[in-house]
Amino acid sequence: MGAGRREVGNEKGKQVMLPTSEAENGLEKYLILDEGCTQTTHTSCPAVVIPAEIVERILSLLPPPVIFKFRCVCKAWNKLLSSPSFLKTCRPEPLCRPIFFFFTDDWNRRVAAYRFESKKWFKFPFSCVPHLTDVRASAGNLVLCGNLVAKADGFVEDGYVVCNPISKLWIQLPQPPSQHKSATSPVMAMKHLGDPSSSSFHVTQSITVEDDRHLGGNSHFTLLQVYSSDTKQWISAGRIWHTVLISMVWCNDILYCLNSLRHLFFSTTLDSLHWQSVQLPIVKEPSMLLEWNGRVILLSFRVFSNKLRVWMLDTQIPYSWIHLGQTRAIAELGSPVVCGDVIVFISKRDVEAKVDLVTFNLRDKRWRAIERCPFIERTGDNVSFPSSWSCIPSLHSPF
After folding, report:
1. Cα 88 off chain centre by
2. pLDDT band at residue 248, thresholds of 50, 70 and 90?
3. Which of 166, 170, 273, 338 has the smallest set of CB atoms within 10 Å of its CB?
4. 340: closest CA among 168, 116, 151?
5. How far from 167 is each of 97, 117, 200, 383, CA to CA, in Å?
6. What is the DSSP-derived secondary structure letter of residue 213?
7. What pLDDT does residue 2 have?
8. Which H or E run includes 45?
9. Closest to 45 (Cα-Cα) out of 24, 72, 70, 26
10. 258 DSSP β-pair partners
11. Which GO BP annotation is one of this protein's (predicted)?
């Protein structure tokens, strides 16, 4: 055998010459990757066979990007690293900061992701959900998506899907009870129960129902419905009369709701629905609720002055609001997303259909712009904003 090359014997007995710096030293090593896959070089060491369960345990400690690369080693490793049993043994705790995702095309089929550590964009395959419409909410490493099915008169929405976009595992949620027809689009919220290795999560849906039988046919109420992964059922959590919810968020096991009259109210338990109210800092501004490290964040946009403001709720009694920062909105803004310590705002210019991203750091109170995504495929025909979400990269899935 020539210097600088070595022989490798595979499961079919073929000899393949590969470059090596150890061949000149007359060394011989054995590395058994799996059953039927052996690499041989010249050493005096005996063959070492690693049990399959030990290999699986070692590989489960690797970070997700390395696991994805190791799937290319051989077919046996690809089968092992893609199996549901292996994914359930992977480290449940997050291995890096959350990643920001959003759809880059008009049909919500292509996804781009931004990692704040490296400040780089990359394409992300998100084809695990069969008939994805958009992303409604996210919590931890789970994402709540709308789902479509084909009917005689076209595609219609058919409930929700919860998935882990990293491991590609997903489940279809049962249909929520539909005794009432919603007058507005549902407002969704999601929370992960317990530590990252917990298998429990809740999905909360609020729908506005017109009631023609109440108060002379001029009344409406909000119906709250909750899905529990433990019982695998939807339950009706109660009604809230004469209000329309525009934003809803879970924070420290407390449900905070914001209605169309710009009133904030919350309940410590959905069983009794004993609501308490908190006065907003500015009443007549369109607002939205977010959650950050166990704190409620309020976003308000003043139309006349074109200012975007960020507030944080101080839960010490008496409740008060802390002003964190403000900026001038230079373009139309979409739904913001909390990604780690950063709020990501999507702004779109209607003429060129270009998408820009602006961030606000909740710790240092600074506004920054993100480099424009190079994978945008959206056109001016779609006037809606792309769905965006934040997700912790973890291979653990509770299903």
Report:
1. 18
2. very high
3. 273
4. 116
5. 17, 21, 17, 32
6. T
7. 44
8. none
9. 26
10. 247, 264
11. SCF-dependent proteasomal ubiquitin-dependent protein catabolic process
Cα 219 from Cα 96, distance rounded (Å): 48
Q: How many CB atoms lie within 10 A of CB 370?
A: 17
Assign domain 99-391 to its CATH superfamily. Kelch-type beta propeller (2.120.10.80)
Distance CA 152, CA 120 (A): 43
Q: What is the pLDDT of residue 37?
A: 46
**Per-residue exposure over 290-307, b if at least 16 CB sit within 10 Å of its own CB, e if not:** bbbeeebbbbbbeeeeee
**Residues 311, 279: contact at Cβ < 8 Å?**
no
- 273 sits in the region (left: phi over 0; alpha: psi -120 to 50; else beta) called left
Residue 382 gets which letter from DSSP? -
Query: Are the CB atoms for 247 and 287 separated by under 8 Å?
Result: yes
Domain range list for the chain: 1-49, 99-391
Q: Where are the alpha helices (DSSP H) in 320-381?
A: none
Both structure tokens of 63? 């970070």
Q: CA–CA separation, 308 vs 299, rounded Å? A: 7
Give tens-digit pLDDT for 27-51. Answer: 233 333 444 444 444 445 555 677 8
CA distances from 33 to 41, 53, 139, 166, 203 (A): 14, 13, 37, 25, 42
CA distances in angstroms from 310 to 109, 262, 294, 307, 328, listed in the order given: 32, 15, 16, 10, 12
Question: How many Å apart are CA 339 and CA 114, to the nearest integer?
Answer: 10
pLDDT in tens, 201-211: 999 998 888 76
Residue with tokens 């080693």: 73
- Give me the helices (H) in 83-200, please: 84-89
Q: Quick: pLDDT tens for 256-305.
A: 988 877 778 887 666 666 788 888 887 667 788 999 999 999 998 876 66
Return the axis-axis angle of helices 75-82 and 52-60, rounded to nearest 10°: 60
